[in-house]
């Protein structure tokens, strides 16, 4: 059994936690009674438990086992997972689809903005609406379970899935995830919150052993999951990684201790895809379902029961958990409401609203934005993603959008007749044809087609006139394993590396407009002749491919064209991208390719340049001071171009705030300089920053970020006044006034941070988000805002007694516009109620 020895150390603290119990996390908008999704209509006996027991009593072992593992769906809708049900007993199949930014099936769906953009709005009501949209679509598209939300914290700026989750703060994450689950499940779709727990990076995600202490786990990563459970999530997906020596999908302390004993979770736990590692151990630890197949929970489980190695009662328990949730959603007695039709119009409206609400204006100088008057009629749009809509990230969060306009189209439309809106590529992500004159034999490597079962070889010479850096770009159809082999001077340019990263393509610059996968590699070439050998096999479907490249000269020409366009226009809007996917982490927070050089050249030509970022997470911005404005749109979904345009032109006022700190550079963030912390050494990774995740680390270490957590600008200004603090039970209440002091209507997120408790002998955060409120104000309007901070937000985890302990004594409360922009400060004594 993997990790048997080290599991003991995990048990020593996790098991103790489980025994001790924890307190409830405050819900953002308290509607606990609607939390758990549809309740069965009041009906005749037997009640749910009896009904489930009766069903189990009538099932054969084979039937029971068939409910506990994935199978091939004969009528697949393109979803990720399937269980067949037991038709003779009226138990229907379950279809399980991704994911976090919309329903991923083999059909069009609403591509919503990435969760990180949703989170930026700091608006639990929008999270509910987001959930409702996916919930309805999921049911309309024939699904029963949604593999979402992803609630793992952003711990490292390199993690490939930072766009799929909410941010670096546990309070904000907890409140948003609860509302999203209420939204999803309120429409009748079962939500599977993921990945339990500590899947905070993609590097070695299937094997990395996360070494974490009890307090860090409890205070940072777990609150989001706990909140999901308390909001009634029907299912939990276990993570790939290990936690303190044991795979998360067979960790008794996590799956039984924390989840069930402590939090009272009564739904089922499934694996992440291919994340099962054992039969008896995993089942005994609390795992109920293997996905997407039955390597351990199929025939092996049936046999283990037959042989007496696994008590059938354990199988019954797992089946009972699945059926109980199905029953709660009306799936067992035909009580589920009929599947609705899709409403693409409503989906698009929600996608637009949320992308607009979440866009974060990071910088706005020299009156660059909004675009009005002559500035709105003479615009250069620069960058490949100005003309290709960047909709979503890659991997299981990828959604096939109903439609997606490019920013160029929406900007042109908004600028109107008579306006001049030019586009310059600036950076060529798909490469240019290698001229036949550089090749001998002069057979082009463009538009090659190799028929099924056939092979094609090119064995010749590439002649390079000057030593130069070339970026080779390969476009190919078919699976990653079937791509052409390209050898340059006997060196393979696009080697196939084992691991999931090869199978996931990123977002929209990783696929050509005609649907081919793209790989890029930069090579320093010396002048002269190089041997080039390309071998391609047609496979069963045939193979289409192109080999292209960029050189210093082609890149300079692209930049020169962008500079010309920038000079000729009043304003420049430059779209920069970074293309992330699950399955791999990035290696730098710098923009990929030669985008930094492009931005430097363009901002020099026109200082009224707005850089729009379509990136997964934070980005280093060595060119920041040269820009007029920077607008962070992350992966904005199918309505991203319209939302971006509305914000650029001031039709909407920016109202998003960063949910993660942006570091200045690759060596100034919590993971820098310590490979044991990230990406791990010898398969082990230590969360040695402890509770100092995100902004807590920058505060503790006195490191200046590029942009702090909670930062976001508006086209109007807000003033804060009159802080009053009082105790509310064992918690606190802050009341203050926010006034819109500018000339435009806008929204502000008033953020409340608390300082450490002098009574707790623990390292604590210098400030921690304890509450917030999003307020819309007309010009001149003032509103009294009241923010409640529940006792739990003022508590720390006591590792001796394995429970939450209130941080009593005088505590500082800061109210402001970001974690580093306090406008009001007060102090109040925190005491136990009564
Ligand atoms: C991902 C999950 C996803 C699953 C099914 C896995 O690779 O980690 O988040 O739900 O695939 O697509």
UniProtKB/TrEMBL annotation:
Fibronectin type III-like domain location: 748-819
Annotated segments matching region Disordered: 24-49
Gene3D superfamilies: 2.60.120.380, Glycoside hydrolase family 3 C-terminal domain, Glycoside hydrolase, family 3, N-terminal domain, Immunoglobulins
Signal peptide (residue range): 1-29
Bias (Low complexity): 26-38
A molecular function GO annotation: hydrolase activity, hydrolyzing O-glycosyl compounds
Keyword field: Hydrolase, Signal
GO biological process terms on file: carbohydrate metabolic process
PROSITE patterns on file: TAT
Top-level taxon in the UniProt lineage: Bacteria
PANTHER family: BETA-GLUCOSIDASE (PTHR42715)
Family: Belongs to the glycosyl hydrolase 3 family.
Protein name (database record): Fibronectin type III-like domain-containing protein
């Amino acid at each position: 059994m993997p990790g048997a020895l080290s599991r003991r150390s995990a048990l020593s603290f996790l098991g103790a936690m489980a025994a001790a119990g924890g307190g409830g996390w405050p819900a953002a908008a308290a509607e606990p009674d609607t939390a758990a999704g549809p309740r069965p209509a009041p009906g005749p006996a037997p009640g749910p438990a009896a009904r489930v027991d009766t069903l189990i009593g009538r099932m054969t072992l084979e039937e029971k086992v068939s409910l506990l593992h994935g199978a091939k769906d004969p009528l697949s809708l393109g979803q990720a997972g399937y269980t067949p049900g037991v038709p003779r007993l009226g138990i229907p199949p379950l279809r399980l689809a991704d994911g976090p930014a919309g329903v991923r099936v083999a059909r069009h769906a609403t591509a919503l903005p990435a969760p990180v953009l949703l989170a930026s709005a700091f608006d639990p009501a929008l999270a509910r609406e987001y959930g409702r949209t996916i919930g309805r679509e999921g049911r309309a598209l024939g699904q029963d379970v949604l593999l979402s939300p992803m609630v793992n914290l952003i711990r490292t700026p390199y993690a490939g899935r930072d766009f799929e989750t909410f941010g670096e703060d546990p309070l904000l994450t907890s409140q948003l995830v609860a509302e999203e689950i209420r939204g999803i499940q309120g429409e009748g779709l079962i939500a599977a919150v993921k990945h339990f727990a500590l899947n905070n990076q993609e590097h070695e995600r299937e094997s990395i052993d996360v070494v974490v202490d009890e307090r860090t786990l409890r205070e940072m990563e777990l609150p989001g999951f706990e909140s999901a459970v308390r909001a009634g999530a029907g299912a939990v997906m276990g993570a790939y990684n290990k936690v303190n020596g044991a795979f998360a999908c067979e960790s008794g302390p996590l799956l039984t201790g924390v989840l069930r004993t402590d939090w009272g979770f009564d739904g089922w736990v499934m694996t992440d895809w291919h994340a099962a590692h054992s039969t008896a151990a995993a089942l005994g630890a609390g795992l109920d379902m293997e996905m997407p197949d039955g390597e351990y929970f199929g025939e092996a489980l049936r046999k283990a029961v037959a042989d007496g190695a696994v008590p059938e009662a354990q199988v019954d328990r797992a089946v009972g958990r699945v059926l109980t949730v199905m029953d709660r959603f009306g799936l067992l007695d035909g009580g589920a409401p009929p599947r609705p039709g899709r409403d693409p119009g409503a989906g698009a409206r929600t996608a637009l609203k949320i992308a607009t609400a979440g866009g974060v204006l990071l910088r706005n100088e020299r009156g660059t934005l909004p675009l009005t008057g002559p500035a709105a009629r003479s615009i250069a749009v620069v960058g490949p993603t100005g003309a290709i809509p960047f909709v979503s990230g890659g991997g299981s969060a990828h959604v096939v959008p109903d439609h997606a306009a490019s920013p160029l189209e929406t900007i042109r439309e908004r600028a109107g007749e008579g306006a001049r809106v030019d586009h310059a590529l600036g950076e060529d992500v798909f490469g240019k044809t290698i001229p036949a004159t550089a090749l001998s034999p002069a057979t082009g490597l463009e538009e090659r087609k190799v028929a099924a079962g056939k092979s094609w070889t090119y064995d010749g010479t590439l002649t390079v006139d000057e030593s130069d850096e070339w970026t080779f770009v390969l476009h190919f159809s078919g699976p990653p394993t079937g791509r052409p082999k390209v050898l340059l001077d006997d060196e393979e340019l696009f080697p196939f590396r084992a691991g999931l990263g090869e199978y996931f393509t990123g977002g929209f610059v990783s696929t050509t407009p005609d649907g081919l996968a793209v790989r890029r590699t930069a090579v320093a070439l010396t002048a002269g002749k190089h041997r080039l050998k390309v071998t391609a096999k047609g496979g069963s479907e045939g193979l289409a491919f192109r080999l292209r490249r960029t050189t210093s000269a082609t890149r300079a020409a692209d930049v020169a064209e962008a500079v010309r366009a920038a000079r000729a226009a009043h304003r420049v809007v430059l779209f920069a991208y970074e293309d992330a996917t699950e399955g791999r982490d990035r290696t730098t927070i710098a923009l990929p390719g030669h985008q930094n050089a492009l931005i430097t050249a363009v901002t020099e030509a026109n200082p009224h340049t707005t850089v729009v970022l379509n990136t997964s997470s934070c980005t280093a911005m060595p060119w920041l001071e040269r820009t007029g404005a920077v607008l962070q749109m992350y992966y904005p979904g199918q309505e991203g171009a319209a939302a971006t345009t509305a914000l650029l032109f001031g039709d909407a006022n920016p109202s998003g705030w960063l949910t993660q700190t942006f570091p200045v550079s690759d060596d100034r963030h919590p993971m820098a300089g310590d490979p044991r912390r990230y990406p791990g050494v010898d398969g082990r990774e230590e969360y040695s920053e402890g509770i100092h995740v995100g902004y807590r680390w920058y505060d503790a270490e006195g490191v200046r970020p590029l942009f702090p957590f909670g930062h976001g600008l508006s086209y109007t200004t807000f003033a804060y006044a009159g802080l009053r603090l009082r105790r509310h039970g064992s918690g606190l209440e802050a009341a203050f006034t926010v006034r819109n002091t500018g000339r435009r209507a806008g929204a502000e997120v008033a953020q409340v941070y608390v300082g450490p408790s002098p009574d707790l002998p623990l390292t604590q955060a210098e400030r921690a988000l304890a509450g917030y409120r999003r307020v819309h104000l007309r010009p001149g309007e003032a509103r009294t805002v009241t923010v409640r901070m529940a006792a739990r937000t003022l508590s720390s985890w006591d590792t001796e007694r394995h429970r939450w302990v209130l941080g009593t004594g005088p505590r500082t409360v800061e109210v402001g516009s970001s974690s580093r922009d306090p406008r009001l400060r007060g102090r109040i004594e925190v005491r136990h109620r009564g």
